[in-house]
Design brief:
The structure is a homodimer of 153-residue chains. The first copy, chain A, is mainly alpha-helical and 153 residues long. Helices cover 64% and strands 8% of the residues of chain A. Chain A binds a DNA duplex (30 and 30 nucleotides) through α2 and α4.
Chain lengths: 153, 153
Amino acid sequence: MGTHHQGSETEIAALDAYLKLMRAAESVTARAHVALPPGLTLTQFAALEALLHCGPLFQSELATKLLKSGGNLTLVVANLERDGLVTRERTAADRRFVKVALTPKGRRYIGTLFPKIAASLTREFSVLTPREQTALARLCKRVGLGRPAYATS
Amino acid sequence: MGTHHQGSETEIAALDAYLKLMRAAESVTARAHVALPPGLTLTQFAALEALLHCGPLFQSELATKLLKSGGNLTLVVANLERDGLVTRERTAADRRFVKVALTPKGRRYIGTLFPKIAASLTREFSVLTPREQTALARLCKRVGLGRPAYATS
DNA sequence: TCCCGATAATTTGACATCAAAACATCCCCT
DNA sequence: AGGGGATGTTTTGATGTCAAATTATCGGGA
């Protein structure tokens, strides 16, 4: 939303906040992206990171954690499997579920990569003081959670 | 980034802020997306909105404003043209440039749609007080701009 | 005038993304 | 035992997205 819209004070404030929120997210994402080795996408990284810190997960759990659709995860995990970074296995108990786990190669890969990305993001956010980072996180959390459905006021 | 990572205090704070920033952006985007008429994507909306509030633009200007690649805009604008919402015309002075403009249909369309989306976003951000919205915008702006390249400290 | 570098757009190939339809399985209920 | 609904995954079709290669055009300098 540019600066050319005429509306009420509250509307302008909300649109301004929205615009800057999106720009910040896109900018940080773009800068984090260039820190990734060529060939590894952001979603692939996020999936590997989840597996590293949570252990093997069902594909549906992965989709929920990454806020992505199930169909999407099918492709992302398939590409990771193709690259030898994860394994997929139908569970014996319920053959509908697919358990995704890191291979040794995948574990080494994300294990060395994650600290670098974490350091990179830490550097990005160092433009804010620790107190400001906390404030930003708190505000973003409330926006992310949204207004409860029953609070219609 | 889950809660399972062990790192320094500053690293954890930065990753937490990053996670919540991204979640907020994704959540608001998702909720704004459902408010769009089926068939119109977020990028298409953003392009039409820019044209409504800025007037006809070169395709390259549009790409810069939307923070998207040139190749991407070629496709997005082509789809809008196919739907009869914009026109594309090579400028006579310099035939490399393509001027994109709203058609009357496109103007009516975005003209009635934008206020609805603006109201929807205003509602989203009403979980924050005006003062909090300003604070969020200010913090996001600094994160979005990033650390100047010469400030290597 | 002609060549060459710069710039705008398009094309290409790979991946992401969703919604919806199709499959595969499971499990409850009769 | 069997039908039917629920659930996880996969497929399909359309769009978005980028980087890199290509094309078209322009402008300045030899």
